[in-house]
Amino acid sequence: MYKILICDDEKDIVNAIRIYLETAGYATVTARNGKEAVEAVEREDVQLVLLDLMMPVMDGYEAMEKIRAVSNVPVILLTAKSEDTDKIEGLTLGADDYVTKPFNPMELLARVRSQLRRYTRLGGQGDLEAAQENELTLGGISLMDSAKEVRVDGELVPLTPTEYNILKFLMEHPGVVYSPKEIYRAVWHGAPFEAENTVAVHIRHLREKIEIDPSSPRYIKVVWGRGYRMERM
Question: Are residues 146 and 192 in the same domain?
Fold first, then answer.
């Protein structure tokens, strides 16, 4: 059974989400602020975190940074803010997805299932059947799918599950241009909610890890007005 951490300072929201998740068959752990969330990630074996942004003691932004320092567990942000800048900042710090309050319970569950599917495919669960070995190589990038490792010029590069799946998808189709919506559907396996900003932030973060000069990328190129492509080498 998957265990999900719910972190929000509003008790009613925590209780509602807990009911939705437990009814769907998930176990839950709760926290009321970012500090408690970080401690829970370090203490509990959780497979996903639902994290509010605006909280006392420690907000979601700081908690996101601290969680990413110790774990690659998927994180879905819960935010009452609709401004793109808030979502982008959270994604930049390492979040995998976000849901804006008030949210539809079915949408939340769909996003939870999507993140868990990707996480387990990346070997987040030790008892999962091992993936068939499959290595992709392009220029100085080597992606070993069986080990879920990416190396650039021989150096191991730590990627979040979302970054890994975007890179794998693009490396499997070098030279092909994909729109943000197409990338979102392929990686998130869901309807492309605000795909443009979400994909752009993850691509930027990915470039910072695999490119020598992210401002002049060698591997992942923008095709203006159309989308992104992985250059053939």
Answer: yes
